[in-house]
Amino acid sequence: MVSAGISASPTAVVFDDPPIAIKNVLDLTEEGFLTDEVLTEVLPKRYTFISVENYGRSAWTHTAKVTTKRSDGSEKPFFLKISYGNHGGVMLQGEYESAREVVRLMPDLIPQPRAFGQFKVESPVTYYYLSDFIEMDTTTVPDPTELARQVAELHKTSRSPTGKFGFHVTTCDGRMPHTVDWEDSWPKFFCKLLLGVSKLDTEANGPWPEMERATKQVLDFVVPRLLGDLKQDGKPIKPSLLHGDLWEPNLGVDKKTGRLIMYDVGSYYAHNEMDLGHWRNEFCSHLRSKVYLEQYLRQYPAAEPREEFDDRNRLYCLKGNLNWSAGHPNSVLRRTAYNHMCYLCEKYAPLDGIDKYDPGKDPTVTGASIVVDVGPRRPGTV
Fold it and tell me: Which GO MF term does the entry hold, naming one (predicted)?
């Protein structure tokens, strides 16, 4: 079920200003969780609704465990996520459509998506996303070999339905929208993606002339140089389906089966190495260890020229840096992104009027990290 109020076109998204925060809506409700008769309508017919209860914590969505009963009397739980306003609808539609793409290829990799749509309640305008519920251990360090195998399989087996880079609806990293209009050219697509998140960062943190010059230099010269002629096994790279927000809080282990589970997908078709850019950032902990990259590259070798893999990884991590900076104003990751840009400009397109690259501000060199308090997360929380 898809609401008619949310466009399927990535270019047509107009967000609320500002987005409606969950805490502001909960202040208006007496019970603490807003539910709706639509919920019973979208459940599979063989299940009878019993109850819904808060489950997990999130800044931009409200999450719950829905308990239902099968015809034989046994209980079946589902996971419910709701959000408010047009922004919330775009976020949840993006996750729903992403999840559908992933499970089509790898049915056991993420919780099965069940429904997306709009509640009937008129105020506040409320959207929902329903999926299977999986009881997970989210404290276990991801196994490098298993994570590499699963991610590489998703990347290798996926095929863009258009043969292009992009996605058919807007998807988000957290609450920040991706610019994912279809493009034949990977460098052109990446430039639009990076420019989009750069604008969000400027809106959140204000102008920074030196960074704006560095960003333009990266887009105009570094991107064509590093991404303009990539090959895989001698052929042009193909668009691969990404997770889109691949870091530790979006990984868990199914307590019943022991299988690796991913969630909170914000997918699009891109160069497979884009998913690895997140692992370079300060907000990652275990995934920053070289063993994860090493294991992945054994499953899916770096594109040619392989000797430029690390520079591409630095370029790709800018999206995660700036996305985090836009969502967390005054974060150190803005400075990190600028320093990465200075490195890339010095090496590939020198420019006056920006700073010199400083290894002392590079977490790849220093090992610096930030402490991320995501609270008691559950599958599907943001």
Answer: protein-ribulosamine 3-kinase activity
Dihedrals φ, ψ of 50, to 5°? -115, -55
Cα distance between the two ends of the chain: 22
Contact 245, 278 (CB under 8 A): yes
Check if the beta carbon of residue 326 is closer than 8 Å to that of residue 173.
no
Backbone φ and ψ of 218, nearest 5°: -60, -45
Distance from chain centroid for Cα 209? 28
Phi, psi of 120 (to 5 degrees): -75, -25
**Tokens (6 digits) for 319:** 């999206």
CA distance 61 to 23: 10
369 phi, psi to nearest 5 deg: -145, 170
Structure tokens at 222: 């570094």
Q: Under a CB-based contact definition with an 8 Å cutoff, are residues 147 and 158 in contact?
A: no
Domains defined along the chain, listed by start: 24-133 (3.30.200.20), 144-361 (3.90.1200.10)
251-254, strands of its sheet edge to edge = 136-137, 251-254, 260-262
Query: What is the pTM assigned to this prediction?
Result: 0.90
- Taking only the tens of pLDDT, the chain with its 382 residues reads 433 345 444 543 434 444 444 344 443 343 445 567 787 788 888 888 888 888 876 667 888 899 999 988 899 999 999 999 999 999 999 999 999 999 999 999 999 999 999 988 888 889 999 999 999 998 889 999 999 999 999 999 999 999 999 999 999 998 999 999 999 999 999 999 999 999 999 999 999 999 999 999 999 999 999 999 999 999 999 999 999 999 999 999 999 999 999 999 999 999 999 999 999 999 999 999 999 999 999 999 999 999 999 999 999 999 999 999 999 999 999 999 999 999 999 999 999 999 999 999 999 999 999 877 554 444 433 3
**Of the candidates 126, 118, 120, 116, which has an alpha carbon nearest to the alpha carbon of residue 28?**
126
Tokens of 55: 């489950």
Torsion of CA 333, 337, 339, 341, to 10 degrees: 180
DSSP state of 126: E
- Confirm if 360 and 320 have CB atoms less than 8 A apart: no
d(CA 167, CA 270): 9
